[in-house]
Amino acid sequence: MEQTWDEQYKQLWDDRYKKEEYAYGKAPDAFFEQWLKKFEPGLILMPADGEGRNGVFAATLGWQVTAFDLSAEGKAKALQLALQRGVSLAYLVGDLQQLTFNEESFDVIGLIFAHFAAEKKSQFHQKLDRCLKPGGIVIFEAFSKNNLQLSLNNPHIGGPKDIDMLFSKENLVADFKDYEILLLEEEEYILNESSYHNGKGLVIRFVGRKPLTSK
């Protein structure tokens, strides 16, 4: 029987993460590291956390981390990394469609190269918004729609080849409506993250604070 798109996408990540090498290295994403250090540790949700480099880093700063990903192979590598770093995190395997979290329960949501299926990404962002406490922070970095041509010319950069899985600044403003924008930019970025993020890429970066009251 032919695999569904979701099954193929899960298989892609399982195949990538089952190798001994950490696909994107063990160090946290530099942008995430820079911004997370600005906030007092609390409860953080890390969607699509893969092999755990960002979730484990957050735990080393004293954050109480809940992470999730489609890949059980990613979870195994993340727990191994946490053990090496002497920290722990709660790590669930599944799609955001299947998982449930309490509303207004997290202080920060870290979305680092979390490229969801095109038809789900706005829906997922809205579901994540409901999980965030009023006044909570979203730290977001992912490939820009303008990265597509760069990645076609240099596949080592990484990123989806489906433009609808990529982002524009307007996408973030629409999905996280009424947030106080602390940062919103499209940035040319030299990626040097192990095997799958290498070369000049274009990313969208967003840091926003959820309103204290809904409008």
Number of strands: 7
| Low-pLDDT segments, ≥5 res | none
Q: According to CATH, what is the topology?
A: Rossmann fold
> Which term fits the overall shape?
globular
Main sheet?
7 strands, mixed
What percentage of residues falls in helices of 4 or more residues? 25-40%
Q: CATH homologous superfamily, by name?
A: Vaccinia Virus protein VP39
Query: What's the number of structural domains?
Result: 1
Question: Keywords, please?
Answer:
single chain, 215 residues, alpha/beta, Rossmann fold, seven-stranded mixed β-sheet, 7 helices, globular
Please provide a written account of the structure.
This protein has helices at residues 5-17, 30-36, 53-60, 72-85, 121-131, 147-153, 169-175; strands spanning 43-46, 64-69, 90-93, 106-112, 132-143, 180-193, 197-209. It has 215 residues and is α/β, with parallel strands linked by helices. It has a single domain, classed as Rossmann fold (3-Layer(aba) Sandwich). It has a seven-stranded mixed β-sheet, sandwiched between helices. The longest helix has 14 residues, at 72-85. The chain is globular and about 45 Å long. The chain starts with a helix and ends in a 6-residue tail after the last strand. The relative contact order is 0.15.
